[in-house]
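Fold this: Phenylalanine--tRNA ligase alpha subunit
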Amino acid sequence: MQDRLKELQQEALGKIEVANELKMLNDIRVEYLGKKGPITEVLKGMGKLSAEERPLIGAIANEVRGAIQEKLETKMADVERAAIEKKLEAEAIDVTLPGRPVAVGNHHPLTAVVEKIEDFFLGLGFEIVEGPEVEKDYYNFEALNLPKGHPARDMQDTFYITEDMLLRTHTSSVQARTMELEKGKPIKIICPGKVYRRDDDDATHSHQFMQTEGLVIEEITDENIGMSNLKGILDAFAKEMFGEDREIRLRPSFFPFTEPSVEIDTSCMKCGGCGCNICKGTGWIEILGAGMVHPNVLEMAGYDPKKYRGYAFGIGQERIAMLAYGVDDIRHFYTNDVRFLQQFKQL
Ligand code: 2NL
């Protein structure tokens, strides 16, 4: 019996030695020290022993049990420590690694341009007015001296929704609404916003683009507004957008809503006027259209053209952005390729 106990001890200690998981150690505990284990079995047979042998075997049995117990505990502590060490090693953080950059967005170039345009005109005392993109034929055409049958109203050029509802083709419609509301009062506004034309998209055309139109109306006095005021404002505008060295020139043109009408060129921002690929050798680049408000337009909105006078201009935001940032295809503004957009972080 004594030998059997010693044998069990050797066997258990050997198994504990090679065990390397908590579960294995627990199984060994159950196997050797559990109620159905061999040591318990040995102790159950003690009844058959003599009175002298019994305490001796009992002591050895306790010793064996104690030895197994102790070895189990130390081994369990070892295994646990090893597990923690392994986990710490696996989760180690290399604090010397470079950080991951946080993606920060930036203004869209068209937004940057409209904000710059707005700031410029706000500084001159203009107010910003917005209006609907789905517009009545009346405000988009009729009120702007574009009567029915005028070629610019062609179905080819305009997205009609019904016979007299359409997607506005310019933000002049907002100005026509403002004139009707203010009837007889001076006006000094800009109207930025999206406009729509039935164009096939290519490098310089988009069926949807952005415009900022401006309108100033004042009562006629001896010294106030005429073509020279318009010229002064747009000269300052060209310098603000394209640099202090810019000059402008006015070329006669035609718009149904202005008389006289002009197109405004700025001296080339790339070559300064010597002639290059951007200005096609002319030294000048067209930036916007403008003119004195046509008397018919004033009259239709309830202003007496003998007492009131006005000037107006229309700025294409994409055109300004393309020239200011050297973008060669209008579609870049709408395809939202981040590689394109991220080049405008400094704006
Ligand atoms: C262009 C030309 C222009 C206007 C827009 C306007 C508005 C009213 C009355 C008179 Cl309410 N005129 N707007 C005038 C001249 C030119 O835009 O080429 N824009 C990109």
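The chain has a mean pLDDT of 91. The CA atoms of residues 273 and 283 lie 4 Å apart.
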